[in-house]
Amino acid sequence: MMIDSQHAFASWFLWVSAVGFSLAFALPLLFVPLAWARIFQWRVPEETHLTIYFGRCVGALAATITLFAMRAAIHPTEHREMLEFIAVACGLMTVLHIWGAVRRMQPWTETVEIGLYAAMAGLSYAALQSLG
User: Fold this and answer.
1) Global pTM value
2) Alpha-carbon distance 49 to 101, whole Å?
């Protein structure tokens, strides 16, 4: 793991968020989407093919994003767009989870993620600002 000493905050943020997101979301969704769903208190339907397909698609996208974040962590000033991407994506995920909570369409574990995504959006924005 290489940290950019001139931009340590942004570099650490990218590494920690990429590794954490990979372990908690991307890889489980990619390889075991129904097990992940059950852990997060989702009721799994009887017919699971579409659920598995969508879970793996989201997992593949998340894994790609985390790989790019790891690459960006080495020289964050050369990859400012990654921090912008994370801030926007997490901002939208915050809204998405608030919508699900208001409509009572999700388990409590997803509602807890509102704080996680809001914090990630804010930290990503702060990391971007730290680059100058």
Assistant:
1) 0.87
2) 26
Alpha carbon of 28 to those of 55, 58, 66, 69, 97: distances in Å? 9, 10, 13, 18, 19
CB 29, CB 36: distance < 8 Å: yes
Q: Which has the closest alpha carbon to 54: 35, 34, 24, 27?
A: 34
Q: Which helix (H) or strand (E) holds 106?
A: none
CA gap 41, 31 in Å, rounded: 18
Q: What does the domain layout of the chain look like in residue ranges?
A: 5-130
Contact 114, 92 (CB under 8 A): no
* Tens-place pLDDT, residues 112-124: 999 999 999 999 9
Instruction: Report d(CA 2, CA 48) in Å as an integer.
Output: 41
